[in-house]
Amino acid sequence: LPVLAVLKANDMDAYPIQQMNTTIGIDSLCDFNLREVAPLCRAIAGRHALLLFNKVSRRFELLLKHGDRFRVDGITYRNSDDSSTNIPSLCSCTATNSVNYKHEIAYLHHGSIIDIGCARLIFASFF
Fold first, then answer.
1. What are the φ and ψ backbone dihedral angles of 93, each rounded to 5 degrees?
2. Domain that holds residue 31
3. Any idea what the CATH number is for the domain that residue 18 is in?
4. Domain total in the chain
């Protein structure tokens, strides 16, 4: 399969994205398991997000699935029907309440910085 993009975390080899849909989280069935990137983070859901290649727009999108939030290029995205804004922080990475955008989809570009819980990823695309 051709490599469409890569995800890179600190101190890890780049993960090649070779499918149209790539699951990201701490579930053992996820394509990209963040447990290796942030083993102590409690803010990452089993199936936190989905990295999707949109054939129409020919770009990658990051969709929030079962996670509370993620950040792309400094903008926080969270579930729009999530009313649990007053729950205590699951981890120090979620302690800041700077939710900027109530939307579940982030459009990625080459060089996007993705923060999911304590995990920081760099996205590199060939599109």
1. -70, -20
2. 5-82+91-125
3. 2.60.200.20
4. 1
Amino acid (1-letter code) at residue 114: I
Percentages (nearest 5) of helix, strand, coil residues in the chain: 0, 40, 60
Alpha-carbon distances of 110 from 18, 41, 60, 78, 126, rounded to whole Å:
16, 26, 10, 22, 8
Question: Strand order in 69-72's β-sheet?
Answer: 15-17, 5-9, 119-125, 113-116, 69-72, 75-78
* pTM given for the model: 0.87
How far lies 123's CA from each of 22, 83, 88, 118, in Å? 13, 30, 30, 16
- The string of pLDDT tens digits covering residues 53-100 is 999 999 999 999 998 889 999 888 887 655 555 445 667 777 665 556
